[in-house]
Amino acid sequence: MSFPMTADAREHGLTGDGTTNDQPALAKLVDAAGTACATDGRPRVIHVPPGRYVIQDEPVLWRSGVSLIGAGRGVTCFVLGNPDNPTQPVPLAWFTSQHHEASPDNHLADVTFAHFEIDGSGVWTEEYDPLAKGLGLQYVLRGRFTDLHIHDTAATGFGCDFLQDTVVEGVLAVRCGRQDPGDRMGGAGIGVGVGGWGGVERLTITSCTAVGNGTNGIFVELQREEWTPPRGIRVTACHAEDNRFGISDWGADGLLVTSSTMLANHEAGFDVSSQGTAGVGGRGGIVTGCVIDGNVRDGVGLGNTPGPYALRGNRVSNNGRYGYWQHDLKGGDQEPATDVVLESNDIRDNGRDGVRIDAGMREAAFLHNRFRGNGRACAPATAGGGDGVRHGSLSLTNDTAHWPPDGHRGKQVTLGDGRTALVVSNTGTRLALAPWRPGGGTAWPDGVPAPGTAYRLPDPHRPSAGLTVAAELTGAQAHGNRMGDDQRDPTQTHGLWTTAGGRWRGGRVTANDFGGDAGSATRCDTPPEGGRWRDNDP
Predict the structure, then answer these.
(1) pLDDT band at 1 (very low <50, low <70, confident <90, very high)
(2) Quick one: CA dihedral 36, 42, 48, 53, positive or negative?
(3) Distances 494 to 227, 375, 378 between C-alpha atoms, Å
(4) Closest listed residue to residue 414, CA positions, set 456, 449, 453, 384
(5) Which residue of 7, 214, 273, 532 shows the fewest CB atoms closer than 10 Å?
(6) 484 by DSSP, 3-state: which?
(7) CA 332 to chain centre
(8) What is the rounded CA–CA span in Å between residue 256 and residue 269?
(9) What was the pLDDT predicted at 186?
(10) Confidence at residue 490, expressed as pLDDT on a 0 to 100 scale
(11) What is the 8-class DSSP label of residue 443?
(12) In this model, does residue 11 exceed pLDDT 80?
């Protein structure tokens, strides 16, 4: 009997009753549909009616030409679990190089996954396993992943690698990476390994949301050091919030990130570094039209890249430490980044410096940016306890305090019992605290402190500047920037500061407005060497 072009899952043995293990029936159905497609070359579609479909103890090996279409998020739900096989990760669907010899010559083609939910809360492996994903496919050609809600997986939620001519759209990934301590592979909301198809991988990630995931909200990661970082990848109109990193480029070439928001992420809103599997940072990327706001530490972290990179037309604001931090991780590429461009960005109200250069750069360009209100964490050290001091899951209140608004942004508060938390923002009497880990929901994993528990806050890191150079900057151009803090109570001490460890060699510093800071407009602990400095105000 021939296999139909579309099949109803209920008519092929799946129950969706939330109790019966539907894995064997789904595996049989996928295999039959895949065999039919291999025979006549015509892709098949499996329709899954409303219900909760238990996929237990074994993942489903996927086949080329087989699509899985549900009735909608929250209507069709696949519930993953491994109660009788605790060493086995259980993604809903898998097809990998490690287990199935997936490759460019042995790939999945013409598959769509759409309109359903994956609940990964029932999977717990004895040791952290990066394969404990929601979806775990490799080498997909002409794929489409749309309108999916993936949550509470032990490792990455959407963890599909080497996606060619593929669109990932409308994927919501929440609280994925439950078992990832934060420094292991995977553990992201949406994680895509790249490089397997060669120098070009045509992939679009659009209109996706990643909240409270263990490592990255959304990231692309080169999988082998010897592979060519691929071009052709775009991330557009996405939202990343309360992840360790919001959106990350760990090994692409020319990644385009546009019209996206990166908020309240713990390490950085946008990150370029060598933290990925291959130890290779991204290069050639462009970030434009994004809001990078309120991240616990840095707005943008850029490092371990040979360059170039460009950030244009972004708002980088209210971050706990630096708006933009140029740095290199140990073990990664340490050569100066060349041709990094920051142009027409609004860089303001960050806890310390607007831009901090802690790694060498060549031919950098800072053009027409607005630096203002940085150095917000300027409040002096303080301490308290006893009557009037109250603690909440994400707050500390002292009714008798008179703190300057956001004067403790980005600082670490230390309690009398030794516990610590990071301050996101503050009013005159209340500190808002970051969760102890992404998706944690509380700053205090051991329980909310008792009323009156003592606390202390440290002195600020001063001075602070719109642009601080603490490494060697060669041939840089700074033109047309407004670096002065023109607020009524300015918090930046300088528009431009070259530290004792910094060097500004050659280049041009022209037509910038440095006026209005709390201290001197410019401060050069190391005098500039060569170059042209002219037409600046004052």
Answers:
(1) low
(2) positive
(3) 44, 10, 13
(4) 456
(5) 532
(6) coil
(7) 19
(8) 15
(9) 86
(10) 84
(11) S
(12) yes
